[in-house]
UniProtKB/TrEMBL annotation:
Residues 11-241 form the Radical SAM core domain. Pfam families: Radical_SAM. It comes from the Bacteria. InterPro entries: Aldolase_TIM, BchE-like, Elp3/MiaA/NifB-like_rSAM, rSAM, rSAM_sf. The lineage of its organism: Bacteria, Bacillati, Bacillota, Clostridia, Eubacteriales. Keywords: Iron, Iron-sulfur, Metal-binding, S-adenosyl-L-methionine. This is Radical SAM protein. Its cofactor is [4Fe-4S] cluster.
Length: 293
């Protein structure tokens, strides 16, 4: 297999097989991330993609799922993606689900009709790392789009019949904008109606501009208790029914699962209990031990 560097994949999707069709991230400017900092974006040679599919077909010819790599492989134009999707189905004829993480901006260069064709070829579920629905926060962390862009592109995905996840990055607005980040994100997420909402807690990794800004006093990180209070505010204002997942802010006990609206009161109660009685030193230690997003 032609894996050219560290492999990042969604652990909630089937983890085999994986197929690298791009390297790096087209944006590579988010202030909290170093995952692809030294990896220029490029498409994998089509010969490598075909060789990898031949290898997968030899090992698991009956594969029904596959996860595309790397950071945002759907950044490729439809004209470049379609032959790859057709090739996947040719080598793996029982293919049902082709998964990929991607950016909101990657949907912009595709029409609804092209997205429908992608769904027919197996792209039925994608993950959008939106991080926030608050315009000030999105600008602050240099995501490269605004809340109106999120809504517009998610509407296209709904029209095309492609399910999608949305991620909320707890704490990324800093102390001064925590409330706006939580409430405005919940409002935009609720309007977009994703099948799944995932939340993770901000970690200021070495080499990130956000850590450097924090060290200069230009960004004020939240304490562990403030992170939980922000997450609670986000949950209280989230009104779409979805699967809800949280990780590396709290343990996730009693929080993660389907049917969010049915479980919302229990999630709120669990968060309030964690805020009141949780071991903040332990949560801080868990955060300090994180090495990557």
């Amino acid at each position: 297999m032609h894996f050219t560097g560290t492999v990042y994949r969604n652990p909630y999707w089937p983890t085999f097989p994986l197929l690298e069709i791009t390297q790096g991230c087209t944006h590579n400017k988010c202030k909290f991330c170093t995952m692809y900092r030294d990896v220029p974006f490029r498409m994998s040679p089509i010969e490598h993609i075909e060789e990898d599919l031949q290898e997968i077909a030899a090992i698991k010819p009956d594969a029904t799922t596959i996860q595309l790599l790397s950071a945002n492989p759907l950044a490729l134009s439809f004209d470049k993606l379609e032959p790859i999707l057709v090739m996947i189905n040719r080598y793996l004829p029982q293919m049902e689900y082709i998964y990929a993480a991607t950016r909101v901006t990657d949907i912009r260069n595709k029409t609804v009709e092209e997205l429908k064709k992608m769904r027919e070829l197996g792209v039925k579920e994608i993950s959008l790392g939106v991080e926030s629905g608050d315009d000030w926060t999105l600008d602050r962390i240099n995501k490269g789009y605004h809340a109106s862009d999120i809504i517009e592109q998610c509407n296209k995905l709904h029209e095309a019949g492609i399910d999608f996840w949305m991620s909320f990055l707890n704490g990324v607005g800093g102390k001064e904008y925590s409330r706006d980040h939580a409430i405005n994100s919940a409002r935009i997420f609720s309007q977009c109606k994703p099948m799944l909402v995932g939340t993770g807690g901000l970690v200021l990794f070495p080499g990130t501009p956000l850590l450097e800004e924090a060290q200069r006093g230009e960004f004020t990180p939240l304490s562990e208790k403030e992170m939980l209070e922000e997450l609670l505010l986000f949950v209280e204002n989230l009104t779409c029914d979805c699967t809800f997942i949280t990780h590396h802010t709290v343990s996730g006990k009693n929080l993660t699962g389907p049917d969010f609206l049915q479980r919302k009161d229990k999630i709120v109660t669990a968060l309030k209990n964690e805020i009141e009685h949780g071991d903040m030193d332990m949560l801080a230690a868990i955060r300090r031990n994180k090495r990557t997003l």
